[in-house]
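idk why but the lab printer keeps eating my pages so im just putting this in chat instead. protein + NAP:
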Amino acid sequence: MGQLIDGIAVASHVKSNVRKAVDELKSQGVNPCLATILVGDDRASATYVNNKQKAAAEVGIATRDYRPPSSFKQEELVELVKLLNSDPSVHGILVQLPLPSHIDEFAVINTLNPMKDVDGLTPFNSGMLVNGKAFLKPCTPSGIIELLDFYSIDVAGMDAVIVNRSNLVGKPLAFLLLQRNATVTVCHSMTKSLTEKLRTADLIVTAVGNRQKFTLTGDMVKDGAVVIDVATTRHMDKLTGDADLSVRQKASWVTPVPGGVGPMTIAMLLKNTVTAASISKGMTE
Ligand SMILES: NC(=O)c1ccc[n+]([C@@H]2O[C@H](COP(=O)([O-])OP(=O)(O)OC[C@H]3O[C@@H](n4cnc5c(N)ncnc54)[C@H](OP(=O)(O)O)[C@@H]3O)[C@@H](O)[C@H]2O)c1
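predcted complex ->
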């Protein structure tokens, strides 16, 4: 049986370090503040934003909560972002995705001040990531790296297969794993012979989120592989990931859903907020 990677425990460790950093910043007159913007009333997005707000408050990070209606125009959203960009009391800005279809996500993200971009999605921060110089990295991929580090899972030389090519997960993770000297294959809905690729992988990171389209089963996993399940989806009335329970018979390490990558994403957002607050005062090394 594979050993479970405990995302709740690692996230709690990260958050306790964040809390110390927040106290340190406050003692130096900086009150770290995260602004979140949720356009519209999507229930899942509202839950994510509520959880982020709550987690920030728990570590002493101040929050601002903007929830304009779904009719909010792109120009209005851009104006709001610019206002927060120029507000020195706000250190991190998070625009919850996805945005309503009438808004061009890239245009909005491209407006964010990269020094306040706590999701690490601006072109500047993506470019820094590709160059191995990023200080604000996308939260889910950096949370995965944090999990691997915590359990001393060294990916150098591993054949890693990522099933996802989104800007939020697959693409940035590919660069982070390359920096750790893994050999990375990025797969997606048009990938040929996916099962064969998975069967040779030492590390599988899967983030499809639709069991009808894709389920990772034990027979697709080589003995001793590390499996990181990023997906969150409902299957048979339960919150689950892409991986079937049979994967645990084959993997050496596996993340549960819930309780794996999810808590890390929020913990890394808090860490990025503290980094952004430190940057604002020129306090990074
Ligand atoms: N735990 C967390 O903190 C966290 C954070 C982020 C995301 N997630 C979860 O991760 C999942 C993905 O999120 P996302 O935002 O990256 O979504 P997304 O943009 O829809 O990405 C899904 C990916 O799966 C690929 N895919 C779809 N069907 C496939 C198939 N049959 N075989 C192989 N690949 C297939 C897609 O390929 P194409 O590109 O070709 O369409 C795409 O790259 C969701 O369940 C989301 O809830 C969790």
